[in-house]
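Worked example 3 (structure in, sequence out).
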């Protein structure tokens, strides 16, 4: 990439002209910056950490950019591992914290020029050439992500107008937005993530590019989309993110099964919305969130619809949920590849919905011991609190069951048994009156073949 003279001209904001203070940068990141600097290399904090610190937010992770090559970085740090085949990066480990150190990156190559015959037009296939600080800035995605905090003099270096965009709370793609979305369609999802997280507006050129280029997301490998979707939904602002995805027609690129279901059942969005709100709250409370839960709720509507069809063809509820679950997950795999370790928990949450209905005998005591009980129960409450209010009573029963001592739990089961027994008797009487030949009745607590 050849930069114009204006592009190599940076605006420097000195220590007094910005609000990043070393007090707010974490220890490991500072150590890395200082050690590189003392060894005579350039060292900058860059990316989300600078952006978030400017906004007074706690950075999620710290990225460092330097003119030292990965090997030179490795020689400076004992706790350093080089990763990545395409572009070598240094990971410096401090306990569980990892500081990512990247050598300034220069130009990239597009698939069109690729002699190895890579497929997709306009998409970057190689991005592995070292460059200058200015080049490194111009190949980044958004201007607010291309600000550099210089450990040498505590200034902030801005090549792309990021400081102004940060003040205007505007997300602007660096360079020609259309071309940049073409080069790497994941940038459109990153745009959604940052808009959701920061509450920034898109600049008009970016909006136009997303409208033009959104279909290109289908060319992104499903494994990369899995990573991006997790970041999008686990950013703590998934409720905003989902509405942005719908507004900019990106949902169909990620969850076409869900999108189609929403078209016929718009009320399903109330459930997704509540599940997202719940996820965001859990993240705010620093409670764990699992990717399995996320996929379970995104695909619940279409999966359940299919399960009902199977059930009307004489399958038990659990079997139907298992079959429909398998089918919907394999359909989803065309867009996002969900690793195997999450697929079983997803299906457990779904079959758990039928298991929670069946409270006969000692089943509740067995069920509550199951590893996915809590997730299935939380899921049930979300259904009850959104589109299936008829499940409220069942949800409340389980809430109480978990809260009381064993003696009372036994009593609850007995009461339930008596109630359903009484109901059966009443029903039997009724059917006997209406049809003296019939002997059988049915219980509310639909029996299932499979505990
Ligand atoms: P987060 O707070 O989620 O970590 P981030 O902006 O730091 O946000 P990262 O994925 O950690 O995002 O990437 C670090 C930086 O690398 C970004 O700020 C951006 O400058 C650059 N970058 C990451 N992905 C891309 C991409 N697909 N295209 C161009 N630049 C990118
Ligand atoms: Mg980051």
């Amino acid at each position: 990439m050849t930069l114009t003279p204006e592009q190599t001209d940076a605006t420097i904001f000195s220590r007094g002209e910005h609000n990043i203070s070393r007090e707010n940068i974490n220890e490991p990141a500072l150590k890395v910056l200082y050690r590189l600097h003392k060894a005579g290399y350039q060292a900058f904090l860059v990316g989300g950490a600078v952006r978030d610190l400017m906004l007074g937010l706690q950075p999620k992770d710290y990225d460092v950019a330097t003119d030292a090559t990965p090997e030179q970085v490795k020689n400076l740090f004992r706790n350093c591992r080089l990763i990545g085949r395409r572009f070598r990066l240094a990971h410096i480990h401090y306990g569980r914290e990892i500081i990512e150190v990247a050598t300034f990156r220069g130009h990239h190559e597009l698939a069109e020029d690729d002699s190895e015959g890579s497929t997709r037009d306009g998409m970057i296939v190689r991005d592995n050439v070292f460059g200058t600080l200015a080049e490194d800035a111009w190949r980044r995605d958004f201007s607010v992500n291309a600000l550099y905090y210089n450990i040498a003099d505590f200034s902030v270096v801005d090549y792309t107008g990021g400081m102004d965009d940060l003040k205007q709370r505007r997300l602007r793609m660096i360079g020609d937005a259309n071309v940049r979305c073409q080069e790497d369609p994941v940038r459109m999802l990153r745009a959604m993530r940052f808009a959701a997280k920061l509450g920034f507006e898109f600049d008009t050129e970016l909006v136009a590019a997303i409208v033009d280029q959104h279909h290109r997301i289908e060319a992104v490998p499903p494994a990369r989309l899995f990573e991006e979707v997790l970041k999008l939904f686990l950013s703590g602002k998934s409720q905003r993110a989902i509405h942005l995805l719908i507004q900019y027609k990106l949902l169909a690129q990620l969850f076409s099964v869900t999108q189609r279901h929403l078209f016929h059942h718009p009320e399903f969005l109330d459930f997704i919305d509540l599940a997202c709100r719940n996820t965001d709250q859990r993240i705010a409370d620093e409670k764990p969130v699992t990717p399995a839960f996320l996929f379970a709720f995104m695909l619940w509507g279409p999966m359940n619809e299919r399960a009902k069809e199977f059930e009307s063809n004489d399958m038990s509820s659990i079997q139907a949920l298992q079959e429909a679950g398998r089918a919907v997950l394999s359909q989803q795999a065309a867009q996002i590849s969900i690793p195997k370790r999450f697929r079983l928990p997803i299906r457990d949450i779904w079959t758990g919905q039928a298991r929670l209905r069946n409270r006969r005998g000692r089943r509740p005591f067995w069920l509550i011991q199951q590893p996915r009980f809590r997730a299935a129960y939380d899921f049930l409450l979300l259904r009850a609190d959104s589109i299936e209010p008829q499940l409220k009573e069942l949800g409340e029963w389980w809430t109480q069951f978990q809260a009381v001592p064993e003696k009372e739990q036994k009593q609850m089961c007995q009461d339930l048994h008596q109630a359903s027994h009484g109901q059966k008797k009443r029903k039997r009487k009724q059917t006997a009156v209406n049809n003296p030949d019939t002997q059988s009745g049915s219980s509310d607590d639909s029996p299932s073949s499979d505990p």
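Notes: Residues 47-48, 60-61, 63 surround magnesium ion (ligand 2) (CB under 6 Å). The longest strand covers residues 97-103.
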